[in-house]
Amino acid sequence: VGSYRGRWDTIPTIVTAALPAGIVGTAYSQQLVASEAGTFAPASMPAGLSMSSTGLVSGNPTAAASPGQVRGTFTNGNGRTATIDIPITITAPAVLPPTITTSTLAAGTVGVAYDQTLAYSYPSGGVVTMETTGLPAGLTADPNGRVHGTPTAFGSFSLQVTPTGDGTRVGPTKAVTLQINAVTSTATTSPWAPALAGLIGSR
């Protein structure tokens, strides 16, 4: 007796033809769509991504792939299968320029040696140099962000600091406040002053 497959015993198809691009280190989540209800199963995925039984492709990509492929199978309720072979591009993250994170440097005093270093953020971990202008007299700034010297002028100063990453990626200029205080004079009274005053007064 021959077998008969009814009109509902169809071969499923994968509706999703392509997936949006992902970025290494950035959370990714996209839903695959099939022509009918069923179960998804992964075969090979880009590094860091997984496929759930409901067709959710998610995770944090760990390597660039151009193009990459999401491969697997889909099985409907009648056991009929469809092959999943969908292209996906995973790109490396953009390298952002460094930024200065210091907003205010520790205060200094005229005539007192000063030594502080500006802080920065540079996720790529490369070499950062800084150009600093607006320093008070007596202080200098090294390319590594070290501000040092002996200030000779007091007041509130706005340093303009521009970072550069790896010699080419110029970050935004940031204003950094530096307060230099004047010398506070303290009068010193000699313990002999009362006696001397008495001698002078007795003349």
Please give the structural blueprint.
Layout lengths: L21 E2 L4 E4 L6 E7 L4 E3 L4 E4 L5 E12 L4 E11 L7 E2 L7 E2 L4 E4 L2 E2 L6 E6 L5 E3 L4 E4 L5 E11 L3 E2 L3 E8 L11 H10 L1
Parallel strand pairs: 1-7, 9-17
Antiparallel strand pairs: 2-5, 3-6, 4-5, 6-7, 8-11, 10-14, 12-15, 13-14, 15-16, 15-17
Tell me what the structure shows.
With 203 residues, the chain is mainly beta. It has 1 helix and 17 strands. Strand 6 and strand 7 (81-91) form a beta hairpin. The radius of gyration is 35 Å and the shape is rod-shaped.
Order of helices and strands: EEEEEEEEEEEEEEEEEH
Structural class label: mainly beta
| Percentage of residues in strands | 35-45%
Radius of gyration: 35 Å
Termini gap: 146 Å
Helix content: under 10%
Averaged pLDDT: 90
Helical stretch count? 1
Low-pLDDT ranges = 199-203
- What characteristic shape results from the CA principal axes? rod-shaped
Number of strands: 17
